[in-house]
Alpha/beta hydrolase
Amino acid sequence: MRKILLLLALVLANIVVKAQSDTLSITLENVKYPYPVNFMPIKVEGQDLRMAYMDVKPAAPNGKTVMLFHGKNFGGYYWTDVIKVLTGKGYRVIVPDQIGFGKSSKAFIHYSFHLLARLNKNLLDSLGIQKITLMGHSMGGMLATRFTLMYPDRVEKLLLEDPIGLEDYRTFVPYNSAEDDYKAELKTSYESVKKYYQTSYFTSWKPEYEYLVNIGAGVSKSADFPRYAKVAALTFEMIYEQPVCYELGLIKVPTVLFIGKEDKTIVGKALLSDEEKAKHGQYKILGPETAKKIPGCKLIEFDNCGHIPHIEAKDAFFKALTANL
């Protein structure tokens, strides 16, 4: 009997250890990034915060810098292969985790693209970098657009990879308060994250994408997850209430738009009927329409590819990226 109890205790201990190893802090302390992470101290609305970033220098510098802005459900960790390609071409690469995301502070503040753009400008100033090529994916595309509109003299070229906000979600997505979104975020689980990533981000699922789910879902097990969920709701509100699509024609720097033709991303998609879903988020239509709005914009499309070409269509994406730097 004693042996059986001991065996059960060992099994339970292993289960507990595994559960703990799967739990991530809301600032991803236990997630290893591909390059060393630095922190810039900042003060916002009286709060002392810190902004995480990677500053990756190439072995053979060409004197130019690329800055990468991540999407809403990601952090700097998913840029690994992009950083390798860019540094291999001699570019210094700056990869911030925006405030509220990744390893940066999860602050209760008024989130705005204007504020985030200014913080990124301050980061460049602190590093002594005057000119960049700016690349933004998903929500990062909205932020990159706002940054370029605010600081056109700092951007040599704008690269937008499946940016969200190509249509005004307020015109067809029902309004949800931050409190409503917070309650929805609290229901996050491994299963819900994986289902969302499978159906929203990729045309077909591969085991190599699993790490994205593990990070996206791992934070939901943290005791601090309610804070993370609240910040996620506040940043959803930022995306919903602060469209940039009406200002695309004001962009004055050379722009390249990379589009996965099977992307059907809609912010707030779960609130829509099937009929409404079919009308919106069609990137094979939104891509060409957006390219016409941006003066001199070059459109590059990827067949059989969803929301993240730099992961799902690596070879084609990297070929197009390096050809258009």
Notes: Residues 2-22 form the longest helix (21 residues). The radius of gyration is 20 Å. The CA atoms of residues 7 and 255 lie 62 Å apart.
